[in-house]
Amino acid sequence: MDKQTEFIFALTVAEQRGFLPFIVYVHAYHETGGFVHPIGNNFFGLKPPTQIKPPREGWTGTKVLRTTHETIKGTSVKLDDYFCDFATAADCIQFYCFQITRLFPFAYANRQDPTKYFDGLFSGNLKFATDLNYLPTIKKLYTHLLAEEPEKILGILKNEKAT
Question: To which H or E segment does residue 71 belong?
Fold first, then answer.
């Protein structure tokens, strides 16, 4: 099973926590470049507690060092950084939902509304990403994928259930 298919099946974790699964799918799609470059089973670029303030509570797993791009004072910088290393896509989604609930209350409160949800990842002091174009890009991606991806997702689910 490829990473995208594994992720699609794991979306039940987000749905059980009240998240609109397609919002979570789009977010992971964006972070992984269309599921081409996930960091193991980390589909959201989540970093371990020592890297983020306030600390990301609940993380007791391993970490992996990868090269990433961050925007620092308006300049894109390439650097090595640590990321959470999850055993499964479901574990990643569970931790993602936990962190959204804890760190991004506006996004969590609007987890059924794509526009407000993505806005919520950038409201308040803590921002989900450093890229200044992240928010307009992910909103545009949501609109694009809404027109393209649902049939693909349903096809994956249908084919897997048939086998």
Answer: strand 62-72
User: Is pTM beyond 0.90 here?
Assistant: no
Angle at 122 between CA 79 and CA 18, to 5 degrees: 110
Q: Where are the alpha helices (DSSP H) in the chain?
A: 3-10, 12-16, 21-32, 89-103, 105-109, 114-120, 134-162
Phi/psi-derived region of residue 124, left when phi > 0, alpha when psi is between -120 and 50, beta in every other case: left
Residue 72: inside a domain: no
Angle at 92 between CA 90 and CA 95, to 5 degrees: 110
CATH number of 106's domain: 1.10.530.10
For residues 97 and 14, what is the distance between their CA atoms, to the nearest angstrom?
7
In this structure, the number of other CB atoms found within 10 A of the CB of residue 20 comes to 17
What's the longest Cα–Cα distance across the chain?
51
Amino acid at 123: S
Find out whether 113 and 136 touch, Cβ atoms under 8 Å: no
Residues of the chain with pLDDT under 50: 51, 56, 160-163
Closest by CA to 61, choosing from 93, 86, 89, is 86
User: Which residue carries 């479901």 as its tokens?
Assistant: 90
Question: How many domains are contained in the chain?
Answer: 1
Please indicate, yes or no, if residue 75 is contained in any of the structural domains: no
Any domain includes 102: yes
